[in-house]
Amino acid sequence: MRNKTLKILTLLFFPAFIFLGYTFLKEDQSHQMQDVKNVFGNPIALCCNQPKTGFYRNGICQTGAEDFGTHIVCAQVTDEFLKYSRTCGNDLITANPKYNFPGLQHGDFWCLCISRWIEAHNAGVAPKINLHATHIKVLDYVDMEVLKRYELK
Fewer CB atoms near the end CB (10 Å): N or C, the chain? Predict the structure, then answer.
């Protein structure tokens, strides 16, 4: 009788727990989004939804503890940059469905890892950046003066 009662209670209340958990998670995520700032200290703009970019695939160059690559630069990729990245071992051209990655082509916007962008900058092939959609954390790595030279106008 006790097992049956537990099963009934679980069936009755489990959907409510899931709903409440989803609601709290959703609210928590929206709070995080409001706190995300761009290099100007303003709320970060959307980088791209087609293809869906960002470490969290939410279109935003947002980072967190699990983002070891620090995907915080909203860049408009070029053929030159894509070829360079491939030679460095990061093929951004070929689709990889396992990681929900569509493959990029010239003109696409993508949240790049800060380290790859700096490498590309040093090699003279860094793509232009949408500073309004680039995370403020970039300023820990690159001076604003340098970023402004790559700003999309």
Answer: C
Tokens 């051209």 map to which residue?
Answer: 93
The DSSP bridge partners found for residue 85 are: none
Residue 29: phi and psi, rounded to 5, are -65, -40
pLDDT at 12: 39
> What 3 state SS string does 8-73 have?
HHHHHHHHHHHHHHHHHHHHHHHHHHHHCEECCCCECCCCCECCECCCCCCCCCCCCCCCCCCEEE
* 16 HSE (CA, 13 A, CB side): 5
Q: Which two tokens stand for residue 78?
A: 């070029």
7 neighbors 1 (Cβ within 8 angstroms): no
Averages of pLDDT over runs of 10 residues in the chain (153 residues) are: 41 35 36 76 96 92 93 98 96 90 94 97 98 98 97 94
